[in-house]
Amino acid sequence: MHSPDEAAPLYQRIFLLLPQEPGLTLPALPRLHLCERALLQELHQQRQNSLQPGEEGGVGDPHLLGIFLQQGREQDIYIEHYLPRDLFQAVVAHELAHAWQAWQGLEGLPLMVGEGFAEWTAYHVLQALGEERMARRLLRRRDLYGQGLQRFLTLEQQQGRAAVLAAARGSLPL
């Protein structure tokens, strides 16, 4: 997305879609910031440095495209600008899933759970938006994000969406 004016309607659309697909409700829309990759990496590093011993942070990723941050009730999502539309939508859905996790009070989840659930959310949002090519791209990932997505999709297929939400909350093993 090239500008906030271009990104804002897509961001709002995904926020409004989440309660229907995949069934996540957020009480407030986090503020959206389009930024340079260098700022994303700096914010990621700051978050890593602020974690308490034993807490898990994100994966060190040279291809970091977005980050969700919360201070108190204030929530912000930073996304690299100039992303193609389909990739922007995937990143938005992924980061809004992290916002949902924060509203649920889910902190310190294992990376497989936190990131896998966020990818599961992005996958379903992309399908609902008709972005099949990008949804298939998520399925081809072999890293921790892709492994988590596969686990959540398998759980959904075997036990349904309620089991996915229970696993996302950490009350059902993944």
Give me some keywords for this one.
single chain; 174 residues; mainly alpha; 3-stranded mixed beta sheet; 56% helix
Helix content percent band: 55-70%
Main beta sheet, described? 3 strands, mixed
Radius of gyration: 15 Å
Mean pLDDT: 90
The number of E-state strands comes to 3
Estimate nothing, just give the exact number of structural domains.
Answer: 1
**From the helix content, strand content and strand pairing, which structural class follows?**
mainly alpha
Gross geometry: globular
Oligomer: single chain
The secondary-structure element order is HEHEEHHHHH
Q: Report, as a whole number of angstroms, the end-to-end distance.
A: 34 Å
Strand order of the largest sheet: 1-3-2
Beta-strand level of the residues, as a percent range?
5-15%
* Residue windows where pLDDT falls under 50 for at least 5 positions: 52-60
Put simply, the count of helices is 7
